[in-house]
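Feature request disguised as a bug: please show the residue count (175) next to GNAT family N-acetyltransferase in the output. Example input:
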Amino acid sequence: MFLDGDGVALRTIEEEDLEFLQTQINDPRIWRAIGRSNPVTAEQEREFYENVVCEDDGVQLLIAVDAEPVGTIGLHALDRETGSAEIGYWVAPDHHGQGYGTEAATLVAGYGFDQLRLHRIAARVFEFNEPSRRLLESLGFTREGVHRDAEFIDGEYQDVYWYGLLEDEWREERR
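Example output, currently without the count:
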């Protein structure tokens, strides 16, 4: 395990995880929440693995509970010069509401601030995704703005809420 918590462990994504990732990303409860509109083939999932997961431009991890994959989380758009990154995550629908996303996000934010020396972590959430908004706010993220009608999902335009968390805010929340 790369990062170990009380209820979840975060580990690297491996080739044997691709089937789980493809199956889950094609579930409407996942693809809608992350803004995808096209299905993902096995070949496209492999390309994601090779071009995103295996690159050094960010951190992509599998969320596991008792060694069973339940979702993914990562830091992308990592800019070491400005000390910023964007967090992204999803948890398989069968595992929603159990706190796995919150614990994983807590572990990744701590890793970002403590190990990567980030100054700021950003996040984007669709207006309709109340659970994700609550997750971010519970960690101390501040809603910084709204991009109105910024994405087209399920036949309608959706607002995108932008959140941010600064290192000193994170540390203050942890005291």
